[in-house]
Design a protein that fits this description.
The chain is α/β, with parallel strands linked by helices. The protein folds into three domains: 135 residues, Response regulator (Rossmann fold, 3-Layer(aba) Sandwich), CATH 3.40.50; 59 residues; 157 residues, Histidine kinase-like ATPase, C-terminal domain (Heat Shock Protein 90, 2-Layer Sandwich). Helix content is 47%, strand content 19%. The protein contains 13 helices and twelve strands. α7 packs antiparallel against α8, α9 crosses α11 and α11 runs antiparallel to α13.
């Protein structure tokens, strides 16, 4: 029995191209010119999948998906659009869209495979692939392989500068300023080594023993590149203990720590007391990380929503006047929790408006 697909798209060329391809692949494709037509069809017929564009007259794609969820909550949905925004991607996650494809598709087989996979998966499995892709994009490595090569290329001539400076000092010990040149070159060399090591760790997806104590010391050095964090935030490491290692992917745990620290820095951005504390300890078979800030705090009604995709107490990036002002898409804590779920780790957030926030993360050893 052929799968029955409803394809909503206002562009006739797209309807013909992608609709005909799915028909040739063995599906029965019914088309609609806009969301209103699609909703009428959904009322009267049963479909195995809804394929829809986003920009359509009368009722657009997102509204179509939202309304269809009321009558057909388990209907798999795939978006096929000419492009979208991050906010639309967040909304797609909330609406349990299976996948978000961007046209024109270079390989039409991607459409067929995605559509059939969405239909054949149980509804509880929907959105998992799309969510993973969005997580990878949102938490894209901050250093990466390109910077590794750049650090190496800069360090090579720097080594020559250091060598010739030391040789010059040996032959001419009375020349002023050589010690300063050598000292500063050593500092730059150390920074380049740190950047190179960091970049290397971000392109390594193998699980290795994670030493949380060492990871935090390294990540704090990178946070110093944030001028607000470096010059205005008073970081108090109250109790940073050496703790047992646990298996993990380094850059994932580093991203969790970095995002929690960024949230803490954002929270103290406009407060008079700008203090963040970090605690690590272990008990039984668990390693614990606690980050506390003296920031604005979170209200009880907002606290229960902080892990929802798309929810944020901060403005969107294009609503702020400068990049330093705290902003976000409401995805950070959502994906932090997604990563922690992969490790069977627990996260708890306690907060009081005007007092601050305490985040506790527990990793099983």
């Amino acid at each position: 029995m052929a799968y029955k697909i409803l394809y909503a798209e206002d562009d006739p060329l797209s309807r013909e191209k992608y609709g005909d391809y799915l028909t040739q692949a063995g599906a029965e494709v019914i088309t609609a010119k806009n969301g209103q037509e699609a909703l009428e069809l959904l009322k009267n017929e049963k479909f195995d999948l809804l394929l829809t564009g986003l920009t359509m007259p009368v009722i657009d794609g997102m509204e179509l998906i939202s309304r269809s969820r009321k009558s057909s909550p388990d209907l798999p949905v795939v978006i096929l659009s000419g492009g979208g925004t991050v906010s639309e991607a967040v909304e797609a996650v909330n609406l349990h869209v299976f996948q978000y494809l961007v046209k024109p598709l270079k390989d039409l087989e991607v459409l067929k495979n995605t559509v059939f996979e969405a239909i054949e998966h149980n509804s509880t499995m929907q959105c998992s692939l799309f969510r993973q892709v969005l997580k990878d994009v949102y938490f894209i490595p901050r250093i990466g392989p390109l910077t590794v090569g750049m650090a190496h290329n800069i360090k090579s001539p720097l080594t020559g500068v250091m060598g010739y400076s030391q040789l010059l000092k040996m032959k001419n010990p009375d020349i002023e300023g050589l010690d300063v040149i050598i000292e500063q070159a050593n500092i730059v060399s150390g920074l380049l080594s740190m950047v190179g090591d960091k970049g290397q760790s971000e392109i390594n997806f193998a699980k290795t023993p994670i030493d949380l104590f060492e990871l935090i010391k390294i990540e704090l050095k990178f946070l110093d590149f944030n001028l607000f964090f470096r010059h205005q935030v008073d970081t108090k490491i109250i109790e940073l203990k050496a703790v047992p290692s646990f298996p993990g992917i380094y850059h994932q745990i580093a991203k969790v720590f970095h995002h929690l620290m960024q949230n803490a820095a954002d929270a103290v951005f406009e407060t008079q007391k700008k203090q963040i504390s970090i605690v690590t300890d272990s008990f039984d078979d668990t390693v614990r990380l606690i980050i506390t800030d003296t920031g604005v705090g979170i209200s009880p009604k907002d606290l229960v929503r902080v892990f929802e995709p798309g929810f944020s107490t901060k403005p969107l990036p294009y609503d702020v006047e400068d990049y330093e002002t705290p902003h976000g898409y409401g995805l950070g804590l959502y994906f932090v929790k997604e990563i922690l779920n992969d490790y069977n780790a627990e996260i708890e957030i306690e907060s009081e408006v005007g007092v601050g926030t305490k985040v506790t993360v527990e990793f099983p050893i």
